[in-house]
Write a structure and sequence with these properties.
6-stranded mixed β-sheet; single chain; alpha+beta; about 170 residues
Length: about 170
């Protein structure tokens, strides 16, 4: 169910853009506990692997759920990863990375369930130690749900533009 009212669509876009900007600042300021609270208890945080395939096999470019993914996590696992970052137990992040999350190109539509489907593009710059840095780009497809008057992510699928990551690890949240 997509609303055709342009004022309502603009209001939804503005509200969601504020949500995504807040999320980016939470990540860049390393407020991981608060960031995890932006997700529903039943969230699926999924990042498939991307493969180079011939055009005629484009349906195989992204691995499906249940196949070997980069991330296929629930809220408990996100909380564990966030806690490791907060307590310093994530050795790959000591000293911690400096990040800058840029979010844009938001498209949103109300779904028949009352939830909202949203798609965003992202650029994440990561600087670590003196010489390590990386630029990650891609898109995220979210299903957002209103919970206690605020938006929460019920499902996130992250698709990186690159299919090979040359950095030592992927320890930042996207």
């Amino acid at each position: 169910m997509t609303t055709t009212d342009p004022v309502a669509r603009q209001a939804l876009w503005f509200e969601l853009m504020q949500f995504y900007i807040r999320e980016a600042w939470l990540l860049d300021e390393r407020k991981f506990k608060e960031w995890v609270e932006l997700f529903t208890d039943d969230v699926l945080y999924f990042m498939p692997r991307r493969k180079n395939v011939p055009r005629r096999e484009a349906h195989r470019e992204l691995t499906p759920l249940g196949d070997l993914a980069i991330f296929e996590e629930d809220k408990r696992y996100l909380q564990t990863r966030a806690r490791r970052r907060i307590t310093g137990m994530a050795w790959a992040e000591d000293p911690p990375s400096r990040t800058r999350h840029m979010i844009g190109n938001l498209e949103a539509e109300t779904l028949a369930s009352g939830e909202v489907g949203a798609r965003t593009a992202f650029l994440v710059y990561r600087s670590h130690l003196e010489t390590d840095h990386q630029l990650l780009s891609g898109c995220r497809e979210d299903v957002l749900r209103k919970v206690d008057g605020g938006w929460k992510v019920a499902r996130r699928t992250i698709v990186l533009d690159a299919n090979v990551l040359l950095d030592k690890n992927l320890s930042v949240f996207l």
